[in-house]
Write a structure and sequence with these properties.
574 residues, 3 domains, Immunoglobulin-like, seven-stranded antiparallel beta sheet, six-stranded antiparallel beta sheet
């Protein structure tokens, strides 16, 4: 094979013959050699860990690395120029929290700059060079201590991971201490590994090279390997476990280990690649946890916002966000990029997280290359096929991709006692109108009670929740097979549930909220059948919850009574 240019000859500490002597013939089956035209550098192996003395609640690591050129052309490896590969380290954690899994990035390093290419043969059959190039099929090992050598590490912000371009010499702000510039992880984020179902850690190595990117081979530059974590006398130590998964970023470990995880590649046209992994977990009681992990492999545009559609009538709870810290002046002007959490807003039918724009702050907390951010929430509806949207940081624009998102709730609210629905012509009995979409006001809540639904109709996991009642009201869940659309006065409220009425459940509210079914209660359809009303496929039923409000001075007779009711809900049972 003839290289694309003549090798650049200079005096080196090793001769070409000595480099050739380092050849090791080994080509694991997982690595396809010579299939991509041009230089194609990957992380062929993550070889070991250097553990350094912690400082300020932060552990620091170096991660041994072997780079492989699996392409058909030499890869530039010129020292003291911007024509060599740079590589970075990241650490990730898979942990079970509150009934669902989370895959998060805990830390990242500055960049190691390549300076001399050895000619080993870890990945393919190697044709040696003189060290100014990584030869065709050749590999270049670098120890963990070399990767953790602080003076040779440069910041990430100066690298365009899509084009492979970077400034040389790199920015070199002052530093001191044992953890500076190295792969950092907070001690508070660490746990001992090895227990069944326990927390697991992963190292990722990424390599960026200008000529690799120019050849269009930049999407396979990250690899991962599992880590062990132990602690002795207060000192944490990491080691490698298993084998390296090549040409695959660490985010893919989540899907590899959990079949419930789905994954979508988001390729920005003529730019970089994002990888989205996500999982919807049934928490029981009609609640679902939605976990999204968005990884930027090599997009220089970076991410500024992330949006998930939320159906009308669905209110997400436990909204969360997780990012990773920049450190030691890794940002424009030798100032760290911002670590301010993205703000979450529910508006316009979507839940959107966002940081500052590039115009507002070029050092804003964007999702830059080689980093992973998490977006999470709970919702009372199971997932359905939909799409999410990633907004760009460095220029206007966005890109959408398919994902599992919250579906429509199983029930549709109607019959509000807020005075706004022209179909409900019956006023609240003493003009005690509630807030928008809710029932008539009660003696302790001027907004009134609100009835909502969660779960799915097939199988029947539907849960009815009434909130905004009096703190410990006796509450009756009512089902009807017809609707009185204009409403009728019912105690201090307005009821639209009509036809053949069944009392499904009787409960006491706690803190003004009451839920059914729960615990050992039969499902709604089972309870309805037991009461003589089996619900056929496609059958529609109407629901309301009326509750005690014994205040004699509120909405007094004859206008009202000692009970009230929230809005109605209709459900079609498919």
């Amino acid at each position: 094979m003839v290289p694309h240019r003549s090798p650049h000859i200079r005096k080196l500490p090793f001769s070409a013959a000595a480099c050739a002597a380092l050849l090791v013939v080994a080509a694991p089956a997982q690595t396809p050699c010579f299939t991509n035209s041009g230089p194609d550098v990957i992380v062929g192996d993550i070889t070991g860990i250097a553990n350094y003395t912690p400082s300020g609640g932060v552990e620091a690591l170096g991660v041994g690395t072997t780079l492989c050129n699996i392409g058909t052309v030499w890869l530039d490896y010129f020292a003291n120029t911007n024509r060599h590969p740079v590589n970075s380290s990241g650490i990730f954690r898979l942990k079970h929290v509150d009934g669902a899994d989370r895959f998060e990035q805990l830390g990242m390093s500055w960049l190691h700059h390549g300076f001399f290419a050895l000619s080993s043969g870890l990945c393919c059959s190697c044709t040696p060079t003189d060290g100014t190039h990584l030869g065709i099929g050749c590999s270049d090992p670098s120890t963990a201590s070399r990767q953790g050598s602080q003076p040779g590490l440069g910041p990430r912000w100066q690298v365009d991971a899509h084009t492979g371009d970077f400034a040389y010499p790199p920015a070199n702000p002052p530093w001191s201490g044992t953890v500076a510039r190295r792969l950092q992880v907070r001690v508070s984020d660490l746990e001992v590994t090895g227990g069944p179902g326990g927390t697991r850690f992963f190292a990722e190595k990424s390599v960026i090279a200008p000529d690799d990117a120019a050849a269009g081979n930049g999407n396979n530059h990250a690899s991962w390997r599992e880590l062990t974590a132990t602690v002795r006398a207060g000192n944490w130590n990491f080691g490698v476990k298993g084998s390296t998964t090549r040409a695959s970023p660490a985010i893919r470990a989540w899907r590899d280990l959990d079949p419930g995880v789905e994954e979508t590649e988001i390729q920005v046209p003529n730019e970089g690649l994002f990888v989205l992994a996500y999982e919807a977990t049934d928490l029981g009681g009609g609640q679902w946890h939605y976990e999204f992990a968005l990884y930027n492999l090599n997009s220089d545009l970076s991410g500024q916002s992330f949006s998930v559609p939320i159906p009308a009538g669905v209110t997400p709870t436990n909204i969360g966000f997780h990012d990773v810290d920049h450190h030691d002046g890794d940002g424009i002007g030798n100032v760290d990029s911002s670590g301010v959490d993205w703000t979450a807003t529910l508006a316009g039918g979507a839940l959107t997280w966002e940081c500052e724009t590039f115009a507002q702050n070029p050092n804003g907390n964007a999702l830059r290359w080689g980093t992973l951010y998490n977006f999470r929430f709970d919702a009372p509806t199971p997932p359905t096929a939909g799409s999410v949207t990633v907004g760009f940081f460095k220029s206007p624009g966005s890109i959408s991709a398919g994902a599992s998102v919250p579906g429509d709730p199983p029930g549709m609210a109607y019959c509000a006692g807020d005075g706004s629905d022209p179909l409900v012509t019956t006023d609240c009995p003493c003009l005690n109108f509630g807030a928008l979409g809710r029932g008539c006001a009660n003696s302790q809540n001027p907004s009134g009670a609100s009835l909502g639904t969660a779960g799915s109709t097939s199988p029947d996991t539907v849960v009815l929740t009434s909130e905004g009642e009096l703190p410990s009201s006796l509450s009756i869940f009512l089902q009807g097979d017809a609707s009185q659309g204009s409403g009728i006065v019912f105690g201090d409220g307005v009821r639209c549930v009509a036809g053949h009425l069944r009392r499904l459940y009787v409960k006491n509210a706690s803190g003004g909220t009451v839920i059914a079914p729960q615990g050992g209660d039969p499902s709604i359809t089972a309870r309805s059948a037991a009461l003589g009303d089996p619900i056929p496929l496609g059958g529609q039923r109407f629901y309301g919850v009326y509750y005690r409000d014994p205040s004699p001075s509120y909405c007094p007779a004859p206008a009202g009574s000692t009970f009230n009711i929230g809005n109605g809900v209709s459900i079609v049972w498919f």
